[in-house]
Structures are given as structure tokens and as C-alpha cells.
Write a structure and sequence with these properties.
Elements (H helix, E strand, L loop, with lengths): L17 H14 L1 E6 L4 H6 L2 E3 L1 H10 L4 E5 L2 H10 L4 E3 L15 H10 L4 E5 L4 H5 L3 E3 L4 H6 L7 E4 L2 H11 L4 E3 L5 H4 L3 H10 L4 E4 L6 H9 L8 E3 L2 H10 L4 E5 L4 H8 L4 E4 L14 H10 L8 H16 L8
Parallel strand pairs: 1-2, 1-3, 3-4, 5-6, 5-7, 7-8, 9-10, 9-11, 11-12
Helix pairs in contact: 1-14, 3-4, 4-15, 10-11, 12-13
This protein binds 1,3-dihydroxyacetonephosphate and iron/sulfur cluster.
Length: 335
């Protein structure tokens, strides 16, 4: 598996038409496979999936599913998490090269060295990490339960939070704890959604709600805009991708500015077709998520590829931290 930013050519050449959809469904039945798609997948993949959702919801669904095969349309760490939770199931990802720049921002060796500098600290890792990092972790979290996870740790214990600096800053703000050390990693897609861009869009759309993923470079700026009164505080919502879908159903706003990967707009528009959802940055597309093409999904189901493996010892150590993650906090939201 590789997740460098070099150009990786995805499997291509197939239109997601009705014949494709029928063949995908037939092959999935034949393999006793459940199809899971993250909210950042392209619309055709989201629509063919049995379940779409955020990383926490999909982890829970994968763990609870009766299917013998899980086809994970998302990035590699998500499929790896499903394998960690269900070692006896076959877990397929349609293109194993679909990595994650955030997961690449800390290695197992780096985390071990960091832990050695802070003996006794509790390690909280975002689910966007490799199995090796999860094996060094006490509790995993996702964007939808990060605050609950850190709040569950006794006040007097130091916390090492990795690898996302923006989510870490959000957790620090929400919990009010000053004994959290945050790793300086970031996702290249979310870091690119910046404060000035958000401020400009918010000024041009004063009635819009702001839905902001906590991995964004602009999350702090959004709260600053609220703090100085440029945007009413109740209009700024820092949300996981699954919680954005719930918020779309609940809001009274007629328009919403969305700060996250643009694949999210598809689920939001389906959930609330009467609302005008606009991306804060319409170039915010994750090339790794988009490697799961219609051609890649078909190949995956035909060939039983790419199969995800996690060595038993790493998986056993990682499972404890992932298990704690899925037990803490409210369901993140999947369909
Ligand atoms: P969610 O946990 O909100 O699904 O986000 C996962 C992710 O990769 C964000 O970039
Ligand atoms: Fe990773 Fe960023 Fe892509 Fe999410 S959007 S999968 S964090 S590279």
C-alpha cells in the first residue's frame, strides 16, 4: 500500500450505468458481500453501497455485519480498521493504493519515541492512522467522538493526541484541558480549506449556516468569526461528516457553506434537497477517495481484490483501542 501524493492512475474506463449497477449487485450477492462507502466517495459509489457514512458509523456497521465479505469503498486505513474488528471476515478495498496523507503523518516508530518522552500519558489516535500506530494507542477516536473520548480520560492524566493538529486544537478547545499534547500532522485536503477563504464566503452569504469538519485549517477561524460577531455563533457547526447529514435535516437555514471534502455534498443534497449546499473550497477533492472508481469496484468484486491483511499480533493490539472507540460517544451517522 502506498499513499504518497505522487500521481496514481486509478482503474478507469467504465460508466456507472444500470448494467454496471446490476453487475455490482449480482457479484456482491454471489460473494455474500456488504458494500460500505464513505461520505467522500463519488456519487455512483455512494448510491450503489448498502451503507454510506462517516468513519465511525462504518466501523460500527462493519463490526456488526453478518456478511462474510466487507467491500470497503474508502481509504486504506478504513478497510484496515474493518479487518482489525473482523479478523475472520474477508475485507476488500477496490484499490489498495488509496492511502491518506493524514495517516501518513505519523509512523509507529515516531509514536513510540513520543510516548517515551511522556511516560504515563494516555495516547488518543484519530482513526486516520495505520494499524501499527493503532497498536501503540490506548483509545482511537473519530471526528464524531474525539471530544467524548478525551473527556472520558481522568482530568489529571496527560494526553498525547495524534495525528491531526486541527482536530487536536478543536478537542483542546471543547474539553478546556491544557494537558493535551497535539501532534503536528494534517490532511492536505482539509488544511487547504483556509480561514480567509471561509471569511470571504461567509461575508457574501450572511444567512448561511457553516458546516465545518474539524480537520479543516479554517475551523479555528470559523470560531473566531463567531467570537467577533461576524457570523452568529449558532450558525457555526463543527461536525463529522455523519453529523453533517443529521444537521442538514435539522437546520432551518436555506443555504449552507460546507467546509470539507466535496464528496460530502452528495449526501447533504440527498438529505435536504431544498437547501442550497455550497463548498467553501470546490477544489477540496481527496484523490485517494476518488481512486475507488466504478471500474475499481467491479474489478474488486470479480477478482476478490485487493484483500486487506493485518498481521495477527498488530491486529490484536490495535483491536483494543478501536473497540474502545466504537464503545464511546454517540453513533456518528450512517445510512
Ligand atoms: P469522518 O470521520 O468525519 O468520516 O472523516 C474521515 C476523514 O477521512 C476525513 O477526512
Ligand atoms: Fe485522508 Fe484527507 Fe483524504 Fe480524509 S480527505 S482520507 S484525511 S487525505
Amino acid at each position: 500500500m502506498t499513499s504518497t501524493l505522487q500521481e496514481l492512475t486509478p482503474y478507469s474506463g467504465i460508466e456507472p450505468d444500470e448494467a454496471w449497477a446490476e453487475e455490482v449487485r449480482r457479484l456482491a450477492r454471489e460473494r455474500d458481500a456488504v458494500l460500505l462507502a464513505h461520505n467522500y466517495q463519488s456519487p455512483a459509489i455512494q448510491d450503489i453501497a448498502d451503507h454510506t457514512g462517516d468513519s465511525l458509523a462504518l466501523s460500527r456497521i462493519a463490526a456488526a455485519s453478518d456478511a462474510s465479505t466487507i467491500v470497503f469503498c474508502g481509504v486504506h486505513f478504513m478497510a484496515e480498521t474493518a479487518k482489525i474488528l473482523s479478523p475472520d471476515k474477508t475485507v476488500l478495498i477496490p484499490d489498495a493504493r488509496a492511502g491518506c496523507s493524514l495517516a501518513d503523518s505519523i509512523t509507529g516508530a515516531q509514536l513510540r519515541a513520543w510516548k517515551a518522552e511522556h511516560p504515563g500519558a494516555v495516547v488518543v489516535s484519530y482513526v486516520n492512522t495505520t494499524a501499527e500506530v493503532k497498536a501503540e494507542t490506548d483509545i482511537c477516536c473519530t471526528s464524531s467522538n474525539a471530544v467524548d473520548v478525551v473527556a472520558s480520560i481522568p482530568e489529571d492524566r496527560e494526553v498525547l493526541f495524534c495525528p491531526d493538529q486541527f482536530l487536536g486544537a478543536h478537542v483542546k478547545r471543547e474539553t478546556g484541558r491544557d494537558n493535551i499534547h497535539v501532534w503536528a500532522g494534517e490532511c492536505h485536503v482539509h488544511a487547504g480549506i483556509n480561514g480567509p477563504e471561509l471569511a470571504e464566503r461567509a461575508a457574501a452569504n450572511p444567512d448561511a449556516d457553516l458546516f465545518i469538519h474539524p480537520e479543516c485549517g479554517c475551523a479555528t477561524s470559523a470560531l473566531y468569526l463567531a467570537g467577533e460577531g461576524t457570523v452568529p455563533r449558532e450558525k457555526v457547526k463543527i461536525l463529522s461528516t455523519g453529523d453533517m447529514v443529521h444537521a442538514a435535516r435539522d437546520t432551518k437555514a436555506r443555504s449552507v457553506l460546507v467546509a470539507t471534502e466535496i464528496g460530502m455534498l452528495h449526501q447533504l443534497r440527498k438529505a435536504a434537497p431544498e437547501i442550497d449546499f455550497q463548498a467553501v473550497n470546490d477544489r477540496a477533492s481527496c484523490r485517494f477517495m476518488k481512486m475507488i472508481t466504478p471500474a475499481a469496484l467491479l474489478r474488486s468484486l470479480r477478482e476478490g481484490a485487493d484483500e486487506v491483511h493485518v498481521d495477527q499480533e498488530t491486529a490484536a493490539r490495535a483491536r483494543a483501542s478501536v473497540q474502545r472507540m466504537i464503545e464511546i460517544g454517540q453513533p456518528g451517522g450512517g445510512e
